[in-house]
Design brief:
mainly beta; 10-stranded antiparallel β-sheet; 2 helices; globular
């Protein structure tokens, strides 16, 4: 005679844990290559070959893809952004998250953007560069000023690369904003 104790199956036995490696698509099984280093420079280009932005950092953690550096977490950053008219806007920040493939650039911590003409400055806690719209989206204690005026602090403001147009995000809706120049 065979005897046993019965009862409901344990949760683990009824639903064995999934193997996350087996369920990943083939492309994501490639080992991630990450390089942590001191000073680094990251640059991204637009489709027409012109430089979109350049970031220099005191320290970095760069994720490498088949074509080289793809994304990076950067500290102690300075850099330049080339606007649609070719003029350079300078920036500094405590940190940046950058992706050269998508041209995503997010600056955080004591962000300062300086447009040489008309000499305007934007400061904020966080600034995202919206490359497809050629706009800065600034959040947290946003102040924009030049030698004649100051606006802010504001919770959120958007601005063109040259800081000549500044306003709330609704001011820059596609219906109210002309197509990118150049």
């Amino acid at each position: 005679m065979l005897m046993g104790c019965g009862g409901p199956a344990s949760r683990e036995a009824a639903n064995p844990p999934k193997n996350p490696v087996a369920e990943q698509p083939e492309a994501s099984k490639t080992p991630e290559r990450v390089v942590a280093s001191g000073k680094a420079t990251l640059e991204t280009k637009r489709e027409d070959g012109t430089t979109a932005w350049t970031v220099e950092a005191e320290s970095s953690r760069v994720r490498l893809g088949d074509g080289g550096a793809e994304s990076a977490e950067l500290s102690g950053v300075t850099g330049t952004l080339r606007g649609p008219d070719g003029r350079l806007t300078k920036f500094t920040a405590d940190r940046a998250d950058a992706n050269t493939t998508t041209r995503r650039l997010v600056l955080t911590g004591r962000v300062k953007i300086v447009a040489p003409d008309p000499g305007a400055t934007l400061t904020a806690n966080k600034v995202r560069w919206l490359d497809d719209r050629e706009l800065f989206a600034a959040e947290g204690n946003v102040v924009v000023q030049d030698e004649r005026w100051q606006f802010g602090p504001s919770a959120e403001l958007w601005a063109t690369a040259d800081l000549k147009e500044v306003g709330t995000p609704d001011r820059f809706s596609p219906a109210q904003r002309p197509a990118p120049r150049g």
